[in-house]
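Q: I'm writing up a methods section and want to include an example of the input and output format. Could you take the sequence below and give the corresponding predicted structure tokens, formatted cleanly so I can copy it straight into the document?
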Amino acid sequence: MKKLKEGIVNRGFEKDEEMEGCDSDDEDNSQIAKLSVYRSELEKQDGFDNFLDWVSEFELLRGKKMGDEDDDGRVVGQFKGSLCIYKETLKTQVESMPKKNPKMGFFQHIPKNDAIEVLIRLYIVKATDLHPADISGKADPYLKVILGKHTINDKENRITQTLNPTFGKLVTFEAKFPVETVVTIQVFDYDQFNFDDMIGETKIDLENRYYSRHMADCGMAKNYELEGYNKWREPQKPTAILQKLCDQYSLGQIDYNQLNGEVSVDGHTYTAETEILNEGGEYVKTKEHMALEVLNHWHEIQPGNALVPEHIETRSLYLPDKPGIEQGKLEMWVDMFLLGIPHLSAPTDITPRVPKSYELRVIVWNAEDVVLNDSAAITGEKNE
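A: Here is the clean output for your methods example:
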């Protein structure tokens, strides 16, 4: 399945935990749902380590290196794997741990080597500071997205004469891991009379994100809502996600206290709301806010395992023949869901708002105590 859909990011934004675009003195700001805006690639953020926490990558090279030959021309593929040496007696140690597979040893966190189908949603918000391709110093940019054998070319929706286009595009794919794992997003400059020139491209390893312990498949929201623009996007509720993590790390029981809104996990205690407004307009008891509070502080419980927050990342665009020379930036985010799961949320609408025309009428009813400085050209008398 391939489709291209338009939509609008209608949320409050925050840049590295600071709100952006809103007046901090506004009393209503506390009610605005926020997300993090990263000024570089998500995988390059502190603590995420390129999402290689579960695997290592090794380049596969063709033939034997001759003299000072560059290895880049010999790369034919990539091997992903994990290497670990440990004593065989580890098996008995693992057997004593609940919900652990003795056969996996130190590789408890490694996913099964089975092919899975994943729904990919690429939200491409806008590009900034594109390298000019025309004599006029402008460009007519459009998007081209490639995943495996699938290609989406959005030339018909090119944006004319700009270096800072707002795309507002949602691109959806069905991918199979580990076959289709790297998505390439390209920005082209439309040329009416010649071949279109590529301005730049960026590549994302989707598989690394999907299996990472940082849960980069779908950013963790800061608020749990049942409806509205900030409706919860994850198929699983916060309580189910938290329970899964606690089982994975053998952290024991989660203690919820709905009387005072406290939740305790592995000696850490957090406080959150205990009620939520349901679709019928009534407040009902819930544990989801408390569970989400723990998830948003997971790095305190499991140091080095911070969960990816709801975000927008900024990716640099490069040309293959000009590595290291930035050609612009792309602001976007990625959501991934196991195909066929129930209760999947609808995609976020990020269609740019269409400008509307308005007529402004100003009516002056009366004027008092106006000082008249104009005078008649012939008589010199002040005008009344």
